[in-house]
Amino acid sequence: MKTWVMAGALALAACAHQPAPKVAATPSAGEVAKLQQVGAAVLFWSQAQRDANFPHMERVFPVHTVRTGRRIRPLPEGTPLPIAAADVDAFIAANNVAGLIVVQDGKVRLERYARGLTREGRWTSFSVAKSFTSTLVGAAIRDGYIKSVDEPVTRYIPDLAGSGYDGVTIAQLLTMTSGVRWNEDYTDPNSDVARMFTRDVPAGQDPTVAYMRTLPRETAPGTKWVYKTGETNLIGVLVRNATKKPLADYLSEKVWKPYGMEAEAVWMIDQTGKEVSGCCLSVSLRDYARMGQLALEGGRGIVPASWFAQATAAKAQTGRPGYGYGYQWWTYPEGRVGAQGIFGQSILVDPARRIVIAMVGAWPRATGADLSAARAGFQAKLIEAAAK
Question: For the whole model, what pTM was predicted?
Protein backbone atom coordinates (compact mmCIF):
# COMPACT_ATOMS: atom_id res chain seq x y z
CA MET A 1 0.00 0.00 0.00
CA LYS A 2 1.68 3.17 -1.14
CA THR A 3 -0.90 5.88 -0.75
CA TRP A 4 -1.39 8.00 2.30
CA VAL A 5 -5.11 8.32 1.64
CA MET A 6 -5.46 4.61 2.35
CA ALA A 7 -4.52 5.37 5.90
CA GLY A 8 -7.47 7.72 6.01
CA ALA A 9 -9.69 5.08 4.48
CA LEU A 10 -8.49 2.65 7.08
CA ALA A 11 -8.11 4.62 10.29
CA LEU A 12 -8.84 7.75 12.24
CA ALA A 13 -10.51 9.03 15.38
CA ALA A 14 -9.89 11.25 18.35
CA CYS A 15 -10.81 11.46 22.02
CA ALA A 16 -12.77 14.51 23.12
CA HIS A 17 -10.76 14.84 26.34
CA GLN A 18 -7.60 15.34 24.29
CA PRO A 19 -6.49 18.83 23.17
CA ALA A 20 -8.60 20.23 20.35
CA PRO A 21 -7.47 18.81 16.99
CA LYS A 22 -5.60 21.15 14.74
CA VAL A 23 -7.27 22.67 11.73
CA ALA A 24 -4.88 22.52 8.80
CA ALA A 25 -5.35 24.38 5.56
CA THR A 26 -2.81 22.41 3.55
CA PRO A 27 -0.43 19.70 4.81
CA SER A 28 3.23 20.57 4.64
CA ALA A 29 5.67 18.53 2.57
CA GLY A 30 6.79 16.82 5.76
CA GLU A 31 3.23 15.97 6.72
CA VAL A 32 2.53 14.52 3.28
CA ALA A 33 5.64 12.34 3.55
CA LYS A 34 4.49 11.18 6.98
CA LEU A 35 1.05 10.37 5.62
CA GLN A 36 2.57 8.34 2.81
CA GLN A 37 4.75 6.40 5.22
CA VAL A 38 1.88 5.59 7.57
CA GLY A 39 -0.40 4.79 4.66
CA ALA A 40 2.05 2.16 3.49
CA ALA A 41 1.85 0.33 6.80
CA VAL A 42 -1.66 0.83 8.12
CA LEU A 43 -3.11 -2.42 6.84
CA PHE A 44 -0.31 -4.29 8.52
CA TRP A 45 -0.37 -2.60 11.91
CA SER A 46 -0.27 -4.87 14.92
CA GLN A 47 -3.29 -5.07 17.18
CA ALA A 48 -1.50 -2.84 19.65
CA GLN A 49 -0.95 -0.24 16.93
CA ARG A 50 -4.59 -0.36 15.88
CA ASP A 51 -5.74 0.08 19.45
CA ALA A 52 -3.36 2.99 19.95
CA ASN A 53 -3.98 4.77 16.65
CA PHE A 54 -7.65 4.29 15.81
CA PRO A 55 -8.78 6.63 18.61
CA HIS A 56 -6.04 9.21 18.00
CA MET A 57 -5.46 9.53 14.26
CA GLU A 58 -5.57 13.32 14.32
CA ARG A 59 -2.11 13.04 15.82
CA VAL A 60 -0.96 11.58 12.50
CA PHE A 61 -3.17 13.28 9.91
CA PRO A 62 -4.15 16.93 9.44
CA VAL A 63 -7.88 17.42 9.90
CA HIS A 64 -10.75 19.86 9.72
CA THR A 65 -13.10 20.06 12.70
CA VAL A 66 -16.88 19.59 12.55
CA ARG A 67 -18.21 21.95 15.20
CA THR A 68 -21.14 21.29 17.49
CA GLY A 69 -23.86 23.72 18.50
CA ARG A 70 -25.24 24.66 21.90
CA ARG A 71 -28.14 22.21 21.85
CA ILE A 72 -27.49 18.51 22.28
CA ARG A 73 -30.16 16.05 21.19
CA PRO A 74 -30.85 13.92 24.24
CA LEU A 75 -30.52 10.16 24.19
CA PRO A 76 -32.42 9.27 27.37
CA GLU A 77 -32.02 5.96 29.11
CA GLY A 78 -34.54 3.32 28.16
CA THR A 79 -35.39 -0.05 29.62
CA PRO A 80 -32.20 -2.13 29.72
CA LEU A 81 -32.02 -4.67 26.94
CA PRO A 82 -32.86 -8.16 28.23
CA ILE A 83 -29.62 -9.80 27.19
CA ALA A 84 -27.07 -11.51 29.40
CA ALA A 85 -24.13 -9.29 30.27
CA ALA A 86 -21.85 -12.28 29.84
CA ASP A 87 -22.98 -12.67 26.22
CA VAL A 88 -22.27 -9.00 25.52
CA ASP A 89 -18.87 -9.22 27.21
CA ALA A 90 -17.96 -12.31 25.22
CA PHE A 91 -18.87 -10.71 21.90
CA ILE A 92 -16.99 -7.51 22.71
CA ALA A 93 -13.87 -9.41 23.70
CA ALA A 94 -13.96 -11.86 20.80
CA ASN A 95 -14.51 -9.18 18.16
CA ASN A 96 -12.27 -6.37 19.44
CA VAL A 97 -15.27 -4.07 19.91
CA ALA A 98 -14.51 -0.64 21.35
CA GLY A 99 -18.05 0.71 21.52
CA LEU A 100 -21.57 -0.68 21.22
CA ILE A 101 -24.85 1.18 21.58
CA VAL A 102 -28.46 0.12 20.97
CA VAL A 103 -31.09 2.83 20.66
CA GLN A 104 -34.79 2.02 20.32
CA ASP A 105 -37.52 4.66 20.05
CA GLY A 106 -34.81 7.24 20.66
CA LYS A 107 -33.80 5.73 24.01
CA VAL A 108 -30.57 3.98 24.91
CA ARG A 109 -31.17 0.34 25.85
CA LEU A 110 -27.54 -0.80 25.83
CA GLU A 111 -24.26 1.13 25.84
CA ARG A 112 -20.84 -0.37 26.35
CA TYR A 113 -17.25 0.80 25.93
CA ALA A 114 -13.95 -1.07 25.81
CA ARG A 115 -10.36 -0.85 24.53
CA GLY A 116 -9.91 2.55 26.13
CA LEU A 117 -12.85 4.25 24.41
CA THR A 118 -15.19 6.29 26.58
CA ARG A 119 -18.45 8.15 26.01
CA GLU A 120 -16.41 11.33 25.58
CA GLY A 121 -14.10 9.80 22.98
CA ARG A 122 -14.26 9.43 19.22
CA TRP A 123 -13.39 6.52 16.93
CA THR A 124 -12.59 5.98 13.30
CA SER A 125 -15.40 5.87 10.76
CA PHE A 126 -13.63 4.35 7.77
CA SER A 127 -16.27 4.06 5.04
CA VAL A 128 -19.14 4.78 7.42
CA ALA A 129 -18.28 8.35 6.39
CA LYS A 130 -19.74 7.65 2.95
CA SER A 131 -23.26 7.79 4.36
CA PHE A 132 -22.51 11.16 5.99
CA THR A 133 -21.22 12.50 2.65
CA SER A 134 -24.36 11.25 0.89
CA THR A 135 -26.49 13.15 3.38
CA LEU A 136 -24.73 16.37 2.40
CA VAL A 137 -25.96 15.86 -1.16
CA GLY A 138 -29.51 15.75 0.17
CA ALA A 139 -28.87 18.88 2.22
CA ALA A 140 -27.44 20.67 -0.82
CA ILE A 141 -30.55 19.78 -2.85
CA ARG A 142 -32.82 21.10 -0.11
CA ASP A 143 -30.75 24.28 0.07
CA GLY A 144 -30.96 24.77 -3.70
CA TYR A 145 -27.24 24.33 -4.40
CA ILE A 146 -27.98 21.20 -6.42
CA LYS A 147 -31.16 20.85 -8.47
CA SER A 148 -31.53 17.09 -8.73
CA VAL A 149 -29.67 13.79 -8.57
CA ASP A 150 -30.60 13.41 -12.24
CA GLU A 151 -28.22 16.20 -13.23
CA PRO A 152 -24.91 15.29 -14.88
CA VAL A 153 -21.89 15.14 -12.62
CA THR A 154 -19.95 17.33 -15.06
CA ARG A 155 -22.29 20.24 -14.34
CA TYR A 156 -20.72 20.52 -10.90
CA ILE A 157 -17.29 19.09 -11.68
CA PRO A 158 -16.52 20.56 -15.12
CA ASP A 159 -12.95 19.20 -15.01
CA LEU A 160 -14.47 15.74 -15.57
CA ALA A 161 -15.81 16.76 -18.99
CA GLY A 162 -14.30 14.68 -21.76
CA SER A 163 -13.68 11.73 -19.44
CA GLY A 164 -15.48 8.49 -18.63
CA TYR A 165 -17.85 10.55 -16.50
CA ASP A 166 -19.52 12.24 -19.47
CA GLY A 167 -23.22 11.46 -19.21
CA VAL A 168 -22.97 10.08 -15.68
CA THR A 169 -25.60 11.43 -13.28
CA ILE A 170 -25.24 12.35 -9.63
CA ALA A 171 -27.52 9.40 -8.80
CA GLN A 172 -25.19 7.02 -10.63
CA LEU A 173 -22.25 8.44 -8.71
CA LEU A 174 -24.14 7.98 -5.44
CA THR A 175 -24.99 4.36 -6.28
CA MET A 176 -21.50 3.58 -7.67
CA THR A 177 -22.95 2.62 -11.05
CA SER A 178 -21.05 5.10 -13.22
CA GLY A 179 -19.67 2.37 -15.47
CA VAL A 180 -16.15 3.74 -15.03
CA ARG A 181 -13.53 1.05 -14.42
CA TRP A 182 -12.13 0.82 -10.88
CA ASN A 183 -10.12 -1.54 -8.66
CA GLU A 184 -10.72 -1.22 -4.90
CA ASP A 185 -8.31 -3.98 -3.81
CA TYR A 186 -6.58 -2.66 -0.68
CA THR A 187 -3.88 -5.32 -0.87
CA ASP A 188 -2.85 -4.50 -4.46
CA PRO A 189 -0.35 -1.61 -4.69
CA ASN A 190 -1.37 -1.16 -8.33
CA SER A 191 -5.08 -0.81 -7.59
CA ASP A 192 -6.83 2.47 -8.26
CA VAL A 193 -7.57 3.03 -4.59
CA ALA A 194 -3.86 2.63 -3.84
CA ARG A 195 -2.63 4.85 -6.67
CA MET A 196 -5.22 7.58 -6.51
CA PHE A 197 -3.23 9.99 -4.38
CA THR A 198 0.29 8.99 -5.38
CA ARG A 199 0.46 10.88 -8.65
CA ASP A 200 1.67 14.43 -8.96
CA VAL A 201 -1.23 16.83 -9.34
CA PRO A 202 -1.00 19.93 -11.52
CA ALA A 203 -1.30 23.15 -9.56
CA GLY A 204 -4.88 24.16 -8.94
CA GLN A 205 -6.37 20.74 -9.69
CA ASP A 206 -8.20 18.53 -7.23
CA PRO A 207 -6.23 15.27 -6.76
CA THR A 208 -9.33 13.07 -6.89
CA VAL A 209 -10.61 14.69 -10.08
CA ALA A 210 -7.15 14.61 -11.67
CA TYR A 211 -6.98 10.85 -11.16
CA MET A 212 -10.60 9.89 -11.80
CA ARG A 213 -10.71 11.67 -15.15
CA THR A 214 -7.99 9.31 -16.42
CA LEU A 215 -10.09 6.18 -15.89
CA PRO A 216 -11.74 4.48 -18.87
CA ARG A 217 -15.39 3.56 -19.14
CA GLU A 218 -16.04 -0.15 -18.63
CA THR A 219 -19.83 -0.38 -19.03
CA ALA A 220 -22.72 1.93 -19.79
CA PRO A 221 -23.72 4.15 -16.84
CA GLY A 222 -26.31 2.57 -14.60
CA THR A 223 -25.66 -1.04 -15.65
CA LYS A 224 -23.03 -2.31 -13.20
CA TRP A 225 -22.28 -1.74 -9.52
CA VAL A 226 -18.63 -1.56 -8.45
CA TYR A 227 -17.58 -0.33 -5.03
CA LYS A 228 -15.46 2.80 -5.54
CA THR A 229 -14.13 4.96 -2.75
CA GLY A 230 -12.85 7.34 -5.42
CA GLU A 231 -16.42 8.10 -6.45
CA THR A 232 -17.41 9.05 -2.92
CA ASN A 233 -14.43 11.39 -2.96
CA LEU A 234 -15.92 12.86 -6.15
CA ILE A 235 -19.24 13.33 -4.35
CA GLY A 236 -17.38 15.42 -1.81
CA VAL A 237 -15.85 17.50 -4.59
CA LEU A 238 -19.29 17.95 -6.11
CA VAL A 239 -20.83 19.14 -2.83
CA ARG A 240 -17.91 21.44 -2.16
CA ASN A 241 -18.13 22.95 -5.65
CA ALA A 242 -21.89 23.39 -5.38
CA THR A 243 -21.95 24.93 -1.90
CA LYS A 244 -18.59 26.75 -2.02
CA LYS A 245 -18.02 25.52 1.54
CA PRO A 246 -15.60 23.07 3.17
CA LEU A 247 -17.37 19.79 3.86
CA ALA A 248 -16.61 19.96 7.59
CA ASP A 249 -18.27 23.37 7.77
CA TYR A 250 -21.29 22.23 5.77
CA LEU A 251 -21.65 19.07 7.88
CA SER A 252 -21.55 21.23 10.99
CA GLU A 253 -24.12 23.64 9.55
CA LYS A 254 -26.55 21.04 8.23
CA VAL A 255 -26.21 18.07 10.62
CA TRP A 256 -24.03 18.58 13.68
CA LYS A 257 -25.63 21.80 14.92
CA PRO A 258 -29.29 21.43 13.89
CA TYR A 259 -29.58 17.79 14.86
CA GLY A 260 -27.75 18.26 18.13
CA MET A 261 -24.64 16.11 17.86
CA GLU A 262 -22.82 15.83 21.16
CA ALA A 263 -19.12 15.95 20.32
CA GLU A 264 -16.99 17.65 17.73
CA ALA A 265 -15.90 15.38 14.89
CA VAL A 266 -12.75 15.62 12.82
CA TRP A 267 -12.37 14.94 9.10
CA MET A 268 -9.05 14.14 7.49
CA ILE A 269 -7.90 16.34 4.62
CA ASP A 270 -5.86 15.56 1.53
CA GLN A 271 -2.67 17.21 0.33
CA THR A 272 -4.62 20.20 -0.99
CA GLY A 273 -6.41 20.80 2.30
CA LYS A 274 -9.77 19.30 1.22
CA GLU A 275 -11.72 16.67 3.16
CA VAL A 276 -11.33 13.07 1.97
CA SER A 277 -15.05 12.41 1.71
CA GLY A 278 -14.98 8.66 1.06
CA CYS A 279 -13.70 8.01 4.54
CA CYS A 280 -11.88 9.60 7.38
CA LEU A 281 -14.39 11.00 9.87
CA SER A 282 -13.81 10.57 13.59
CA VAL A 283 -17.09 10.55 15.51
CA SER A 284 -18.29 9.68 19.02
CA LEU A 285 -20.29 6.47 19.47
CA ARG A 286 -23.41 8.36 20.52
CA ASP A 287 -23.17 10.60 17.48
CA TYR A 288 -22.90 7.57 15.20
CA ALA A 289 -26.15 6.44 16.81
CA ARG A 290 -27.66 9.88 16.28
CA MET A 291 -26.77 9.66 12.59
CA GLY A 292 -28.68 6.40 12.39
CA GLN A 293 -31.56 8.02 14.25
CA LEU A 294 -31.52 10.96 11.81
CA ALA A 295 -31.86 8.52 8.92
CA LEU A 296 -34.60 6.61 10.74
CA GLU A 297 -36.57 9.81 11.34
CA GLY A 298 -36.15 11.04 7.76
CA GLY A 299 -33.93 14.08 8.38
CA ARG A 300 -36.76 16.61 8.47
CA GLY A 301 -35.46 20.15 7.98
CA ILE A 302 -32.07 18.87 6.87
CA VAL A 303 -32.76 17.01 3.62
CA PRO A 304 -35.81 16.81 1.33
CA ALA A 305 -38.74 14.89 2.79
CA SER A 306 -38.20 11.86 0.57
CA TRP A 307 -34.41 11.85 0.68
CA PHE A 308 -33.74 9.03 3.13
CA ALA A 309 -36.48 6.87 1.65
CA GLN A 310 -34.64 7.16 -1.66
CA ALA A 311 -31.14 6.99 -0.20
CA THR A 312 -31.81 3.77 1.72
CA ALA A 313 -33.63 1.98 -1.10
CA ALA A 314 -31.75 -0.75 -2.97
CA LYS A 315 -30.97 0.93 -6.28
CA ALA A 316 -28.13 -1.40 -7.21
CA GLN A 317 -27.55 -5.09 -6.61
CA THR A 318 -24.23 -6.07 -5.06
CA GLY A 319 -24.22 -9.69 -6.20
CA ARG A 320 -25.39 -11.10 -2.89
CA PRO A 321 -29.10 -12.00 -2.62
CA GLY A 322 -30.93 -9.66 -0.29
CA TYR A 323 -28.11 -7.13 -0.15
CA GLY A 324 -28.13 -3.94 -2.20
CA TYR A 325 -26.78 -0.41 -2.36
CA GLY A 326 -28.54 2.95 -2.29
CA TYR A 327 -27.13 6.45 -2.08
CA GLN A 328 -24.00 5.39 -0.16
CA TRP A 329 -26.11 3.29 2.20
CA TRP A 330 -26.14 -0.52 2.24
CA THR A 331 -29.44 -2.38 2.25
CA TYR A 332 -29.92 -5.67 4.05
CA PRO A 333 -32.58 -8.36 4.44
CA GLU A 334 -35.71 -7.64 6.51
CA GLY A 335 -35.76 -4.01 5.42
CA ARG A 336 -32.70 -3.05 7.40
CA VAL A 337 -30.15 -0.52 6.15
CA GLY A 338 -26.76 0.64 7.29
CA ALA A 339 -23.37 2.20 6.93
CA GLN A 340 -20.22 0.14 7.30
CA GLY A 341 -16.48 0.47 7.28
CA ILE A 342 -13.57 -1.90 7.53
CA PHE A 343 -12.09 -3.07 10.82
CA GLY A 344 -15.57 -3.35 12.34
CA GLN A 345 -17.30 0.04 12.06
CA SER A 346 -21.05 0.04 11.46
CA ILE A 347 -24.40 1.72 11.90
CA LEU A 348 -27.42 -0.56 11.50
CA VAL A 349 -30.97 0.81 11.22
CA ASP A 350 -34.07 -1.38 11.58
CA PRO A 351 -37.01 0.85 10.64
CA ALA A 352 -39.68 -1.71 11.47
CA ARG A 353 -38.50 -2.02 15.06
CA ARG A 354 -37.26 1.59 15.33
CA ILE A 355 -33.80 0.39 16.35
CA VAL A 356 -30.35 1.84 15.71
CA ILE A 357 -27.22 -0.17 16.56
CA ALA A 358 -23.84 1.55 16.27
CA MET A 359 -20.61 -0.34 16.73
CA VAL A 360 -16.93 0.60 16.46
CA GLY A 361 -13.84 -1.51 16.93
CA ALA A 362 -10.49 -2.76 15.78
CA TRP A 363 -10.95 -6.09 14.07
CA PRO A 364 -7.77 -8.13 13.64
CA ARG A 365 -8.26 -7.83 9.87
CA ALA A 366 -9.77 -5.17 7.65
CA THR A 367 -12.52 -7.50 6.43
CA GLY A 368 -13.53 -11.11 6.67
CA ALA A 369 -16.65 -13.19 6.09
CA ASP A 370 -16.28 -14.68 9.56
CA LEU A 371 -16.05 -11.27 11.21
CA SER A 372 -19.04 -9.92 9.29
CA ALA A 373 -21.09 -13.02 10.07
CA ALA A 374 -20.31 -12.75 13.78
CA ARG A 375 -21.38 -9.12 13.82
CA ALA A 376 -24.57 -9.78 11.86
CA GLY A 377 -25.45 -12.65 14.16
CA PHE A 378 -24.98 -10.53 17.26
CA GLN A 379 -26.93 -7.64 15.75
CA ALA A 380 -29.81 -10.06 15.12
CA LYS A 381 -29.56 -11.23 18.73
CA LEU A 382 -29.77 -7.63 19.94
CA ILE A 383 -32.80 -6.92 17.78
CA GLU A 384 -34.48 -10.10 19.01
CA ALA A 385 -33.87 -9.03 22.60
CA ALA A 386 -35.31 -5.59 21.89
CA ALA A 387 -38.52 -7.16 20.63
CA LYS A 388 -39.17 -8.95 23.93
Answer: 0.90
